[in-house]
Amino acid sequence: IGLRVSADDTWGDLFSKILSEKIEPRLGDGRLAVLDEYPASEAALARRNAQRPEVSERFEIYACGVEIANAFGELTDPAEQRARLESEMREMERVYGRRYPIDEDFLAALGQMPQASGVALGADRVVMLATGAGSVERVIWTPLP
Fold it and tell me: Cβ distance 48 to 40 under 8 Å?
């Protein structure tokens, strides 16, 4: 399918490459599209689906091949989040030879957090699509130096 892969690519690397290079550019052509039930391993801060724990409570909305919104149910289980962070740090150490300390304050706060969820809408991406701008950089009103 014409992807560049490396011998040490993980399942997550391959999933991300296929999604970003082959699937996302075609999502939302002619109408909005919703990509739902991400693999739990690809949704670091999202809680698992109670009926199907292999997937997460996460979805994204696409228009014209552009992700315009990202949403998920917040993972509030500190033990599960710790396991995910430790796994990510092992992978970072394997790939980059370094790791960062786990944020203990963040994990402690999770234990106090009520169930929550949210949607992040990319207003800049919506403006880009509405104006026909070729890139999001053309519509950002406060560009980075």
Answer: yes
